[in-house]
What does this fold into?
Amino acid sequence: MTNVAFVGCAHIHTPGFINMLSKRTDVRVSHVWDPDKRRSEFRAQQTGAKLVDSPEQIFGDDSIASVIICSETNRHEGLVAQAAKVRKHMFVEKPLGMGSKDGYAMAQAIEDAGVLFQ
It folds into this structure.
């Protein structure tokens, strides 16, 4: 069983991802974080995942293999950098960044980490 965590739940496609993952037997949503406490509480309850107070709790947990970043786009660069630093595989909802500068910085961090990215 592979543990995956939601890092941000703001994106409109979050419910679809949760629905898709709930049908899999090889993946479990283990943790949820969002800066909006009500939003993260709702998604944690919906998935049966542990609610955490900070993304660092997810990035520091070796039992979590990958993250789904569905935060607001202006948060992506920092979250992707943190995920890459600890070599978490990641899915990042589009758009990746606010512009080409942060997009290229994220691409470089991902490439340097050698993680799977979608």
User: Anything to note?
Assistant: Residues 77 and 106 are 6 Å apart (CA to CA). DSSP finds five helices and five strands in the chain. The two ends are 20 Å apart (CA to CA). The mean pLDDT is 97.
